Amino acid sequence: MGPVALSVADLDRQINFYRDVLRLAVNWQHPGAAGMGAGGKDLIRLFAEPGFRRYRGVTGLYHVAILFPDRRELARVVARLLSLRVRNYPTDHIMTKTTYLDDPEGNGIELYAESPEDGVFEISGDQFSARRADGTPTDGREPLDVDALLSHLREGDRLDAPAPHITRIGHIHLHVANVDEAVDFYHGVIGFDLMGRSRSFQAAFVSAGGYHHHVGLNSWQGEGAPPPPDDALGLRYFTVELPQEQALQDVLVRIHGAGLATKTTDAGVLIRDPSGNSLVLSTPGSARASVSS
């Protein structure tokens, strides 16, 4: 997963949040736009749209998930959130340790680290659940033991240290109009593997390479929710990086075979899913950072 781009009302405020609270670096900044990231790679791109507004009951971003390399680094950022009195919601998904929060404009964020040694995520029939390493079942949405997480910090660890260079986008979770329709697109056309779908939960998860999920899909805004208007704040696009040019061309063959329109941009090939969410297909190093969709 590559950079996630957001349309924002107050660029300076958003830069300050991602820099000072999440400790992402300002990789580049132009009038009206900025790229924030770690290790020289953009994770979040911000595009100023002062006249835009937020809409409710529409498709778009549920949350963007930033993956930290281990529990110690997640503990560092959670401790920072607590010290800055930033409201967040630590959650134990068993196979991941997580906290949830919003940025100043209401964009959902998940911060997490993998913890497969603690158990697994399961899909049985129509239900999503989890199982601890000792075999006991759980719904996978327990309160996180914050004291246990913070015990991974070491003496002298600075809470204001920058995000580690291997921090990356782990996944994105989207509001869609219809889960089955979204699965047909992300699985049948883009080519992600379907990891699980629950009609009672109104959600599905798709991924590549056996990962638990790279894209989450839910219809929690209501079946048939409309796409956001053109002047909506929030998700501008997210990026899927294909490993090489041939892989990208293979996906484009399926897209064009399905009769779907694409647009070539400096960021990559732009396409909209059936719910109006924009994604950009690219290959590593092929996209210039400062481009809008």
Any overview of this molecule?
The chain has 293 residues and is α+β, with helices and mostly antiparallel strands. The protein has a domain at 56-227: 2,3-Dihydroxybiphenyl 1,2-Dioxygenase, domain 1. Helix content is 18%, strand content 38%. It is built from five helices and 20 strands. Strands 12-6-7-8-5-13-16-15-14 form a nine-stranded mixed beta sheet. An eight-stranded mixed beta sheet has the order 2-3-4-1-17-20-19-18, with helices on one face. A three-stranded antiparallel beta sheet has the order 9-10-11, with no helix packed on it. The longest helix has 13 residues, at 71-83.
List the helices and strands and how they pair.
Elements lengths: L3 E5 L2 H11 L3 E6 L2 E6 L2 E8 L11 E8 L3 H13 L5 E4 L3 E7 L5 E7 L4 E6 L2 E6 L4 E2 L3 E2 L2 H5 L17 E8 L3 H12 L2 E6 L4 E5 L7 E4 L15 E8 L3 H13 L5 E3 L2 E5 L5 E5 L11
Summary keywords:
18% helix; eight-stranded mixed beta sheet; 38% strand; 293 residues; 5 helices; 2,3-Dihydroxybiphenyl 1,2-Dioxygenase, domain 1; alpha+beta; globular
Question: SS-based structural class?
Answer: alpha+beta
- The helix/strand order is EHEEEEHEEEEEEEHEHEEEEHEEE
Tell me the total number of β-strands: 20
Q: Which CATH architecture of the domain at 56-227? A: Roll
Return the CATH class of the domain at 56-227. Alpha Beta
- Helix segment count? 5
Roughly how many Å apart are the termini? 17 Å
CATH superfamily of the domain at 56-227: 2,3-Dihydroxybiphenyl 1,2-Dioxygenase, domain 1
